[in-house]
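Worked problem 6 (solution included).
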Amino acid sequence: MKTKNEPALQAYIANYFQEYLVSERGVSDHTLRVYAYTIKAFVDYLYRIKHISIDKMNLPDFNRRNVNDFLDWLQSEKHITDRTRNNRLATLRSFAKYMQYEDITHMNQWHDILSIKKKNEAKTIVQYLSVEGIRSLLKVIPTDTKEGRRNLALIALIYDSGARAQEIADLTPSDVRLTYPYQVTLFGKGRKSRLVPIQEESCQLLKSYMQEHSLLNAYNNRHPLFYNASGNKLTTAGITYILQKYITMAHEVDPDNVPAHLSPHGLRHSKAMHLVAASVNLVYIRDILGHVSVKTTEIYARADSKQKRAAVENAYKNILPDVALSESHWEENSELIDWLSRLGKE
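Solution. The predicted structure is:
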């Protein structure tokens, strides 16, 4: 709500977060933080780079040129990737879409922002661990301390469920089913919930960990499943730190199967790739990972080069005559070999 002395831009930004994102859309805390970070960075850019006083910022300042300049500045000065740029743009476009209904007097301005195109992102190679790599990783986690046992349960669950780090951070004991069929309830993007089956071995690790920390008691049902020394739930940064510590150790022991660096998302990729290798239907993998469309899941099918090579080799039929495979035919024709050798050199 706009007050008499409050600049319009600040008022609309406050309403966007409080009334639209929180009350109407019910976005997760993680999404709220990401959106807030982008809007704050844009406002800060207008103040520091465009020299627009914060208390004088108004709706016309939130325009296509300033948005494009902001995105270009992030790439040139902060060295963000095209993917991150597109994520920042998505947030700013979300605000512009909201403003179409809140401020029709600047409709062309909002349409201009919505018309900004995403950049084509360079296709990245999916980084994942082989099954042997997963074994090597879990093997280096000590089980002779409470912290080690917690971390083993944590990392095993991330892999087994294929969950995002934030989804793991948000888990409570009530989200885990410890009797058959073993499963966890994950809350993904947009707070959409999904049931994901887990293996009995992962479930037993979880059960032992929960018993040790009194998390099976009813009064702890809503307590964070994985928490730090202060009793607060682990952050995604904390989960990343824990995983990287053991990735470093596993890499020293088994450098052929474990890279020097891997994020929690790399474990999610690993689970997806192993499901593809096991010929699990892509629709099921989509549901496990919480993808909106199976098209997103298809990246894993395209990424498995070993599977593709095996499929091609299994389907191969020899159609070449024996003479085509003979090396002596080429060796005898020295003039042809010489001519081929000279190509591009003369």
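Discussion: Confidence is low (pLDDT under 50) at residues 1-7.
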